[in-house]
Amino acid sequence: SNTSGFQRTVLIGINGFLETSQGKVGIENIYLEEDAARVVLREEDKEVYKLDRLGIPLVEVVTAPDLKNAEHSKEVALKIGDILRSCRVRRGIGTIRQDVNLSILGENRVEIKGMQDMNIFIGAIENEVVRQRDSKEKVKMEVRNVLPDSSSEFMRPLPGSARMYPETDLPLLKIHRDLINEAKKDLPKLRSEVEEELKSKGLNEEMIKLLFKRGKVDEFKELSNIINNPSLIVKILLLFPKELVKKFGKNVEEL
After folding, report:
1. How far apart are CA 234 and CA 214, in angstroms?
2. Do 16 and 64 meet the contact criterion of CB atoms below 8 Å apart?
3. CA geometry: angle at 98 spanning 48 and 36, to 5°?
4. What is the value of pTM for the model shown?
5. Average pLDDT score over residue span 78-89
6. CB pairs under 8 A, 24+ apart, for 16-22?
7. Which end of the chain has the smaller Cβ count within 10 Å, N or C?
8. Sign of CA dihedral 227, 230, 231, 237
9. What is the band of 162 on the pLDDT scale with cuts at 50, 70, 90?
């Protein structure tokens, strides 16, 4: 990339799928992208770019048009999120971004950006269906930004395929099947599966939530192999450090 905002995209996988309550949903493509520099100021005689995200690797997961309705879309979004969290992706606002592409029969596709808030996910999709259905003219191919009230506003026209072109200087990289098979042996469990295991050990939802939030699940499992006292282990990992910090006035690393 350079400061014009150019972005490279590498195709990683095709033709996957998820099992859902309403049947299989295809995963058409998985891409590796590098984040581009973004414009923060445009004036008549100059443009200013911010470089803090330049070159950061991003994974893009593209579902097939198999989603039945707004509820189904939310289910799939949460399931993909569960898989990503199990792979220990970076967490925080904006690190996982979701866009929804939507069209009703006979109309053009519209892309809705900023669909991170699950509380407005269904409402935003349903509102866009109503907007397209009630439009008095042909729906334009465009990118829209979701608003806190589940409505959306125009951002820009939807770019076409003309902006994409192949890299001619690099040969295709063929991944050997043995490497793929080896990776499959070491796949992490889904967070939902780990949560069920922790519940079976007697932990409540609040304890489980804190273990995940503070990245202590693996430590909990290791200590569980030494002593069969889940409640005590949780206190050692989550509660005692706080009390000791307060008592001795030192940070956790020193203690």
Report:
1. 12
2. no
3. 25
4. 0.75
5. 84
6. 18/63, 18/76, 18/79, 18/80, 20/72, 20/75, 20/76, 20/79, 21/72, 21/75, 22/68, 22/72, 22/75
7. C
8. positive
9. confident
Three-class DSSP labels, 86-126: HCCCCCCCCCCCCCEEECCCCCCCEEEECCCCHHHHHHHHH
Considering the chain, what is the average pLDDT of its residues?
87
Mean pLDDT of the 175-189 span: 90
Distance CA 206, CA 202 (A): 12
Task: Give 1's pLDDT tier (boundaries 50, 70, 90).
Answer: very low
Give the contacts of 106 (CB within 8 A, at least 6 positions apart): none
Q: Tell me which residue has tokens 């690797």.
A: 57
Which pLDDT does position 127 carry in this prediction?
95
Kindly give the pairing relationship between strand 23-34 and strand 57-63.
antiparallel
Structure tokens at 35: 């984040």
Closest-CA residue to 139 (of 99, 111, 101, 109): 109
